[in-house]
Amino acid sequence: MNGKDLSDLVQDKCVLACRDFLKEELPDLAMEHPARYLSYLIERELKDREIERGLSVREDSSPFQCVRLSSAGGESFIVLGINMSRERVEEALNVLRSSLAKERVLLYLFSFESLADEELISQAMMETELLRMVRDSGIVAYFAMLDPRAGMGMLARIDGDMRSIQYLPH
């Protein structure tokens, strides 16, 4: 698998995980262990395509939920977080910045469960703030925000090098 195919696979599965989150279709285990869920999606795709040879998919949970994919075409490093505070997002981005991986991705999922979550809501990152934080870093962030009370959600791909926010259908 070359670097472009690996990158496409990572992007597809990050978007799929975000869409599952927004549809409230993530299994309970995925809410507790998002890296395990993402690595499952990736490994299932590799088996379906019969491309398992030469690829390594590893999950890690210290200090963040992470997935690493390695192949001859390069390495992808994904840090995942659900309802992370601004401080935790900054820490996650520092982990990504220090990585030598060719592709570095932040998967940021945020949900407002009730009106009582005012403090939690104030900790939510917005897409423009996240763009500022990843600008010129080589990091791509997938941003999914859900408000189940209103039945609304948003999905965006934020590219630090391109300095762009692309809103995706969900």
Could you characterize the architecture of this molecule?
39% of the residues lie in helices and 30% in strands. It has 170 residues and is α/β, with parallel strands linked by helices. It has one domain (3-167). It has a seven-stranded mixed β-sheet, with helices on both faces. Strand 1 and strand 2 (65-71) form a beta hairpin. Helix 1 packs across helix 3. It is globular. The mean pLDDT is 89.
The overall pLDDT, averaged over residues, is 89
What is the helical fraction, as a range of percent?
25-40%
Q: In whole angstroms, how far apart are the ends? A: 28 Å
How does the major sheet shape up? 7 strands, mixed
> What's the number of structural domains?
1
> How many separate helices?
6
How do the strands line up in the largest sheet?
A: 1-2-3-4-5-6-7
Structural class: alpha/beta
| Sequence of secondary-structure elements | HHHEEEHEHHEEE
Overall shape: it is globular
Question: What's this model, at a glance?
Answer:
With 170 residues, the chain is α/β, with parallel strands linked by helices. 39% of the residues lie in helices and 30% in strands.
Topology summary:
Layout: H1 3-22, H2 28-32, H3 34-49, E1 56-60, E2 65-71, E3 74-82, H4 86-97, E4 103-111, H5 118-123, H6 127-134, E5 139-147, E6 152-159, E7 164-167
Parallel strand pairs: 3-4, 4-5
Antiparallel strand pairs: 1-2, 2-3, 5-6, 6-7
Helix pairs in contact: 1-3
